[in-house]
């Protein structure tokens, strides 16, 4: 029998809702419900609240005819949604209390939610932060991407080597999403282009693909802070046009009958299939085109349904391309406008450029996508024609302006002729967009000078900067409730609604000993939680009084985990050689995944583990130094690690990290940064004050100068005994007695050709680390700086970033910078 709800008791109302979900949606009663059943019931209860606000929000967008923003991204690194949603709905305490009344521990339930790992690193997490900020700022936005059945691989360490295992976030279903089978578009591949001439009509082209794949929409509501608005993340799943070829099946060909299904569904099967094979490469292009085509068809339909006129597209719609992955949108939008909606070419081009904008996230040449012309011709023949035509008109228009410089024309061409003919997606995105933005001031400046220097000369207005940001709701309030409570106690409740300005009010508290003590105490609490996790997962015990020195991010040579490891080994040797020195105790914490085919990065993971294995058991250190590599880094793990960090390692080769966003999350939580003047570290040092960070190493300019010389490092190594000693220890197999030669190639590579200037920055890094030790030994100064880091990081809120996009690029009315 249903219980009577207690009058006006929101906790009890929520408790009733949970029970109803458990019974009618999950099909269980409290007596036989498992933890996951409770998770699902609570998530569905929260979702009901989301849906109410979602409906209101979409009605309002319609009524007010708001301009819509579409964020196209191959990655959305969302992580868990339960606490995020409850917290933004203002229901976190209600849900906690409601569960407590049902004798269920909320903390246990929340950890049962799988991470939606539909992304790789900073780029994908940025997209997730942006979605939350857009909802918070009341911007009518859709995120568009792929609903990967398997997100980024699960990293398992076997004897210190990374192994990739399939990640299975959908095993128990996904309570947040709504399948929309009725929202489905056909996406073509292959085939040919025919010319159609009908009497009285302008001759036109029609693409006749020989393969069709169906896209099915799955919608997830994304709620803003205090449910200001609810937007939609629409992810596409690929299906075959027909689930089974019945004739073949009945003829006994049971596998052949589903071959098309397998081929079509592989498009949304996994994030970042290994593209070191030709089949993998093709699948990647199929993924990109698939989600771009479905999204453009969908948004044009919505536009026409609402406004009825394709010509007003740029007034009503802004499309942001997150990196080059969706760059094929330039050609697909042209095809839809010209071939399907019958616009004249130049009109279509004007609309395309006015609607699209593109964010660049890297200057590394190998990361700027390009596709073999032969592959494009086979898979997307009409798009290849369109790209040739865009290119031809572009080159013609330059010649008409009397620009004949061959090198310039070659560099801005959409086709690369040098290494086999390829389509340059960065150039395509640039040419087809009215705005091209970098993600930090330095990155944008370098973009103007390097990858897009020629384009910049031709279109000096297009490149602009939008320094990245992170959502404070997730990276402060949710990840670090202890610190949040302390801050609210100090500066008041308004912090929660206006952190960008109110955080600054914290500055005077840095001078108060009692506040510093509380600040340090919340860190201890978080460090104990991380230590418990490490103990439980890895069986390693950590000294929480030691400096927690953390580098967590994708493993990549330019991010220079190797520099950190060389420092670790040098420190180890120094501690052993000089046990009487008063060394500050350290815990070196690493986490991150290496791309499946990136052998060098995988070797670096193995090295970290080998070093850890040796150092952690060396009794001469008396526990002064520990090294841990925590497996399977993801958003949830970051939420535990970042609030527990004392020192944040942001040590990329200057000029190569576009921005970094974990640097902001660490500083926000009060960690001190040791870093190069790279990416957003530069702006962080301006906001926070260089004296409250440990900035070291070559500047981007010095890196450029040094890189023009031979990259052999004999001189640098000869000049530093410490560096030579650390390299020799690794090279000679001290950390790999089972295979003494394991790292010979790695070290010899550094000596002969150190592309990322690890050796060249080593001594400066070592010296900066000793300043870290010195500051740690004067806690008053350390915690003074720590408080100021938190106080001065409000500017790095993704709300600020999104306001800049909205006013400068998307021209969304009503949003002031
Ligand atoms: C990439 C860039 C990084 C930037 C991020 C978001 O992230 O390398 O500098 O902050 O995009 O713009 P990554 O995938 O390297 O983590």
TrEMBL record:
Q: What class of enzyme is it?
A: transferase
Name the reaction it catalyses: [(1->4)-alpha-D-glucosyl](n) + phosphate = [(1->4)-alpha-D-glucosyl](n-1) + alpha-D-glucose 1-phosphate
Coiled coil ranges = none
Q: Which cofactor does it need?
A: pyridoxal 5'-phosphate
- Bilayer-crossing residues are none
Q: Which UniProt keywords apply?
A: Carbohydrate metabolism, Glycosyltransferase, Pyridoxal phosphate, Transferase
- The UniProt record lists the EC number as 2.4.1.1
Task: Please tell me whether the keyword ATP-binding is annotated for this protein.
Answer: no
| Family indicated by similarity | Belongs to the glycogen phosphorylase family.
Q: What does this protein do?
A: Allosteric enzyme that catalyzes the rate-limiting step in glycogen catabolism, the phosphorolytic cleavage of glycogen to produce glucose-1-phosphate, and plays a central role in maintaining cellular and organismal glucose homeostasis.
What this protein is called in its record is Alpha-1,4 glucan phosphorylase
Source taxonomy: Bacteria, Pseudomonadati, Pseudomonadota, Gammaproteobacteria, Pseudomonadales
């Amino acid at each position: 029998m249903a219980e009577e709800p207690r009058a006006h008791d929101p906790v009890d109302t929520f408790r009733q809702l949970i029970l109803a979900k458990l019974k009618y949606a999950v099909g269980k009663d409290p007596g036989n419900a498992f933890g996951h059943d409770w998770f699902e019931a609570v998530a569905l209860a929260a979702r009901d609240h989301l849906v109410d606000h979602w409906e209101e929000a979409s009605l309002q967008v319609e009524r007010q005819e708001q301009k819509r923003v579409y964020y196209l991204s191959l990655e959305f690194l969302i992580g868990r949604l339960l606490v995020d949603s409850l917290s933004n709905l203002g229901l976190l305490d209600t849900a906690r209390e409601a569960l407590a009344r049902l004798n269920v521990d909320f903390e246990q339930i929340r950890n049962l939610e799988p991470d939606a790992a539909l992304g790789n690193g900073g780029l994908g997490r940025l997209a997730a932060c942006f979605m939350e900020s857009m909802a918070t700022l009341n911007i009518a936005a859709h995120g568009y991407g792929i609903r990967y059945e398997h997100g980024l691989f699960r990293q398992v360490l076997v004897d210190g080597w990374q192994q990739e295992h399939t990640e299975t976030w959908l095993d128990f279903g996904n309570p947040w999403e709504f399948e929309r089978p009725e929202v489905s578009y056909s996406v073509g591949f292959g085939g040919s282009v025919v010319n159609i001439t009908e009497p009285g009509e302008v001759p036109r082209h029609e693409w006749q693909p020989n393969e069709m794949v169906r896209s099915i929409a799955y919608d997830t509501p994304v709620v803003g802070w205090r449910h200001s608005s609810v937007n939609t993340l629409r992810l596409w799943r690929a299906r075959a046009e027909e689930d089974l070829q019945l004739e073949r099946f009945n003829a006994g060909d049971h596998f052949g009958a589903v071959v098309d299904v397998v081929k079509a569904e592989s498009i949304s099967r996994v994030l970042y299939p290994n593209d070191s094979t030709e089949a993998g490469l093709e699948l990647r292009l199929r993924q990109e085109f698939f989600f771009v085509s479905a999204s453009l068809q969908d948004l044009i339909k919505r536009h026409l349904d609402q406004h009825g006129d394709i010509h007003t597209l740029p007034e009503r719609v802004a499309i942001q391309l997150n990196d080059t992955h969706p760059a094929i949108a330039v050609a697909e939008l042209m095809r839809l406008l010209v071939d399907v909606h019958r616009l004249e070419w130049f009109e279509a081009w004007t609309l395309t450029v006015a609607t699209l904008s593109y964010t660049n996230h890297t200057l590394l040449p190998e990361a700027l996508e390009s596709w073999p012309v032969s592959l494009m011709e086979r898979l997307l023949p009409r798009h290849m024609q369109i790209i040739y035509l865009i290119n031809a008109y572009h080159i013609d228009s330059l010649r008409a302006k009397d620009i004949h410089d061959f090198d310039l024309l070659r560099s801005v061409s959409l086709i690369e002729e040098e290494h086999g003919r390829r389509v340059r997606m960065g150039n395509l995105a640039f040419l087809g967009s009215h705005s091209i933005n970098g993600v930090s001031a330095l990155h944008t400046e370098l973009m103007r000078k390097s990858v897009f220097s020629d384009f910049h000369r031709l279109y000096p207005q297009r490149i602009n900067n939008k320094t990245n940001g992170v959502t404070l709701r997730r990276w402060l309030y949710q990840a670090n409730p202890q610190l949040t409570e302390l801050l609210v106690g100090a500066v008041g409740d308004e912090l929660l609604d206006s952190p960008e300005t109110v955080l600054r009010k914290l500055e005077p508290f840095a001078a108060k000993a009692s506040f510093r003590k509380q600040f340090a105490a919340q860190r201890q609490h978080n460090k104990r939680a991380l230590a418990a996790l490490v103990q439980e997962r890895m069986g390693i015990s950590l000294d929480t009084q030691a400096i927690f020195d953390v580098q967590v991010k994708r493993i990549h040579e330019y991010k220079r985990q190797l520099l950190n490891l060389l420092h670790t080994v040098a420190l180890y040797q120094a501690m052993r050689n000089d046990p009487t020195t008063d060394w500050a105790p350290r815990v070196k914490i690493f986490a991150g995944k290496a791309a499946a085919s990136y052998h060098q990065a995988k070797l670096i993971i193995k090295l970290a583990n080998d070093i850890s294995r040796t150092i952690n058991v060396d009794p001469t250190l008396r526990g002064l130094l520990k090294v841990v590599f925590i497996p399977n880094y993801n958003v949830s793990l970051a939420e535990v690690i970042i609030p527990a960090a004392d020192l944040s390692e942001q040590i990329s080769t200057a000029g190569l990290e576009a921005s970094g966003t974990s640097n902001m999350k660490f500083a926000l939580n009060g960690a001190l940064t040791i870093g190069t003047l790279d990416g957003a570290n530069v702006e962080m040092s301006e906001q926070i004050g260089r004296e409250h960070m440990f900035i070291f190493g070559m500047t981007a300019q010095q890196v450029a100068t040094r890189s023009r010389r031979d990259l052999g490092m004999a001189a640098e190594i000869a000049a530093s005994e410490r560096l030579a000693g650390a390299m020799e220890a690794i090279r000679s197999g001290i950390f790999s007695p089972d295979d003494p030669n394991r790292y010979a190639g790695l070290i010899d590579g550094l000596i002969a050709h150190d592309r990322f200037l690890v050796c060249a920055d080593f001594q400066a890094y070592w010296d900066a680390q000793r300043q870290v030790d010195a500051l740690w030994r004067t806690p008053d100064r350390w915690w003074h700086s720590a408080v100021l880091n938190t106080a001065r990081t409000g500017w790095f809120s993704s709300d600020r970033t999104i306001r800049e996009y909205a006013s400068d690029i998307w021209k969304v009315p009503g949003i002031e910078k």
